[in-house]
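Need residues for this backbone.
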């Protein structure tokens, strides 16, 4: 399973990479949304983890770019990973095209559960992690 994590904080990228390594997943990190979108153009990913607040383009704008694509990558499962706790945030993210929302700090079981749900929707569970 190939995961793209778009997150400006290198420590957050490292923590999630360590979690995904346990499951044998291959994670690529991007430090900003523009780089993340370029990686989506040039590589294939099974799932995208997206922070919301980053320098330059924010995560919701990046998700709208993914959803506006004219190819199959427009349907990439996207899980927002954020420290923002606004009351309406989850609904706002889902209405903007996110598939799931996780709040930082992310626990390994929550991350794996969310990824499992996304993969089960997209490929019948063939790429699930546990």
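Answer:
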């Amino acid at each position: 399973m190939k995961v793209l994590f778009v997150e400006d904080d290198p420590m957050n990228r490292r923590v999630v990479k360590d979690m995904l390594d346990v499951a044998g997943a291959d994670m690529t990190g991007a430090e900003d949304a523009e780089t993340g979108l370029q990686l989506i153009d040039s590589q294939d990913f099974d799932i995208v983890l997206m922070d919301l607040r980053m320098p330059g383009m924010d995560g919701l704008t990046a998700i709208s770019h993914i959803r506006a694509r004219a190819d199959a990558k427009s349907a990439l499962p996207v899980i927002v990973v954020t420290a923002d706790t606004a009351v309406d945030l989850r609904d706002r993210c889902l209405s903007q095209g996110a598939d799931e929302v996780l709040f930082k700090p992310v626990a390994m079981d929550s991350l794996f559960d969310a990824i499992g749900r996304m993969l089960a929707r997209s490929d019948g569970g063939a790429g699930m992690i546990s």
